[in-house]
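User: Could you check the structure of this?
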Amino acid sequence: SDMEDYRFMTTGQYGGVGALIKQKDERVFFSEPYEGYPAQKAGVWAGDEILEVDDKKIPGLSTEEVSKLLKGQAGSAVKIVTQRQGSAPETHTLMREEIKIPDVPFKGMIDPVGMVGYLKLNSFTQTASQEVRNAVKELKDQGATRVVLDLRGNGGGLRGHVRQTGGDSDRNTGIPADHECDRPSGLQGGGATGSE
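Assistant: Sure, the predicted structure tokens are below.
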């Protein structure tokens, strides 16, 4: 699982069930099953409690410990017991898949009149610079002359790719310079998240 964590930090890919998890008190829950990945395909919903992973009891474990149990080689099986509030526990056998989290999961115009675009950047992986360039081009094509770059939840990544994402960039922000688009209108920063 440490290898999967390293691979995720450098490429944005890992072997797993395709969901975010969160902890509340001593319990761990699925918070966001990704559409089209094993957890969602097996019928897991946001809010389902994880009771067991491969016969290991989950209550009392940290999200990091549960994450290590859920991640693994793509193509390997993992048995999960979940419980939805008010329902009986359910057992799911999932085949882990290669999960790719997009570096830019969302972009769009937030103020078409003021020509302001918005771009969410989750991490600096090997594909981040190209995804940012593509997103900026799409926003320009929609009329953006300014862009808000949201870095909330960005867990970082490869140092060289932080620089590469900036390319010919503003020296203060590292945002790709675009001579037809003003500097970013704003930067949003914040902490890191994890995926399983």
